[in-house]
Write a structure and sequence with these properties.
31% helix, single chain, 3 helices, YdhG-like, 5 strands, DUF1801 domain-containing protein, globular
Length: 116
């Protein structure tokens, strides 16, 4: 089994469900993506460059879906979180029911345009 698969399967069920859902949407929207295990978390690479990562925060109870070029995104600013980070902005999910696929797909679509 790949390190990313082991990592996801070792997560509590609520994080596992959110991660698998988000990854399914990302893989559907990014045909040239590759899921790697970098910096101790699942990281999606697009066109061989860091695109987004999935970082569960057990202490605060959310899944952080961070976009490597998040500060270059223009749309969906009301839902993207920056938390004093210089380049990354993320979508945060506290439950699978909270995941809005329309916003998720729109953020992925806009971020995809930043990769030439």
């Amino acid at each position: 089994m790949k390190p990313t698969e082991v990592y996801i399967l070792r997560q509590p069920e609520q994080y596992q469900a959110m991660m698998l859902h988000v990854l399914a949407v990302v893989e559907q929207e990014l045909s040239q993506s590759e899921l790697l295990f970098k910096w101790g978390i699942p990281y999606v690479y697009y066109k061989k460059k860091p695109f987004c990562y999935l970082a569960p925060n057990h202490k605060k109870g959310f899944l952080d879906l961070g976009f490597a070029k998040g500060f270059e995104l223009k749309r969906n600013q009301e839902t993207l979180v920056d938390e004093k980070r210089n380049t990354v902005k993320s979508l945060r999910y506290f439950s699978i029911e909270e995941i809005d696929n329309v916003i998720l797909i729109d953020v992925i679509s806009e971020a995809k345009l930043l990769y030439k």
